[in-house]
Hints:
Blueprint: H1 3-13, E1 19-21, E2 36-37, E3 47-48, E4 52-56, E5 63-70, E6 84-88, E7 99-103, E8 107-110, E9 113-116, E10 125-126, E11 137-139, H2 147-155, E12 162-164, E13 169-173, E14 178-179, E15 190-191, H3 194-203, E16 209-213, H4 218-230, E17 234-238, H5 249-255, E18 259-262, E19 267-268, E20 274-278, E21 281-286, H6 290-309, E22 318-322, E23 326-327, E24 334-344, E25 347-352, E26 369-373, E27 379-380, E28 385-390
Parallel strand pairs: 5-6, 13-16, 13-17, 14-15, 17-21, 19-24, 22-25
Antiparallel strand pairs: 1-12, 2-11, 3-10, 4-6, 4-7, 5-9, 8-9, 18-20, 20-21, 22-28, 23-27, 24-25, 24-26, 26-28
Amino acid sequence: MQAQEVVALVRQTCRVLSSERVPLESALGRVLREPVCALEDHPAFDRSAVDGYAIRLDDPGTRFEVVDEIRAGDWKPRSLRPGQSVRIGTGGAIPCEGLQVAMKEDVALEGSAIRLVRREAERNIRFRGADARQGQVLVEAGAVLQPGALALLASAGHTRPLVTRLPRVVHATTGNELVPPDQTPSQGRIRDCNSALVRTFLGLRGIPVEQSRLPEDEPAVRDAMGPVADHADLLLTSGGASVGDHDFTRRLLEELGYAILVSKTRTRPGKPLIVATRGDALAMELPGNPLAHFVCLNLFVRAALDALAGRPAEPLFARGVLGAAIDGDANARETFWPARCRQEGPAASLTPLRWLNSGDITSLATANGLIRVPGGSGRIPAGAEVDFVRAAATA
């Protein structure tokens, strides 16, 4: 299967998770599950839009005695006679109807009075209900809550929005060759970087993950994984998806009751990907090489997380312009080439990064995109338009 086909299958397979109410500080990036309506008019009262002096709209005079001061937060209803004004701050409540606010910059102070230097037609008042009326929908269901939307909810008094709950994600690594990153590996062993990659990828979305290391003894793994898998919405494993004697992930998933949907892709890096389901739970076995992890996380795991959250489906690929040529080959599989993406006006400029093999992660220091190189493309010249995927660094 091509990458786009796997992404479509993953999205089709995943069911949206249940909802929960969370405080605003926990709602960033979450999907709203119900429309949020205004509890009152916005603004709730007529407010001054500027620092200045409130005067009667029907008073043609140019000199006004200052009879009061209203700051933001004050409530001082009162009427004004011709020739009177009230000093008022931005956000201050307009004391009565029929007024306008002369900007501070348009008046000259004369003792306890002001003289208009210039009088504009603009009333400089934010009128009650001008932004939204009571009962009006402020944020639609299905919206992904970003800082601006959260500020709007706060201003409207909605402090516990109903959102899709976070998925319960379990990640397990396999491979006797791995040691923790803080250890010096002995000959033949390497540091585990996939755990950090998975953890930080999920962390960008505020999703916690339960991580563990699995032994390469198959019965022991089965005993360890059974209870863990029972409470996972998404089970991720690193390594063990290939065809070596110790690559037993497929058997393990099947013994745990998962049905295999995908056992390999026509994508590189990332060919030996396994996708499986058990009820509403999804499992993915990510190929062990770190660059393959990066590709699979940004293509397939992202699709699963979006679907579980109820995020609206978006096109997988964007279009960009190659800043340097890519020397492809005759490989029949599509390749996802690490790249540095910069937005230059309406077009994205893509700089291909060095890529020796799927174990080479030096490019990931600066990669924030993946260029799609169709199978058998050969050399793609600089300036060509290509498909690309925005990677997690820009999420």
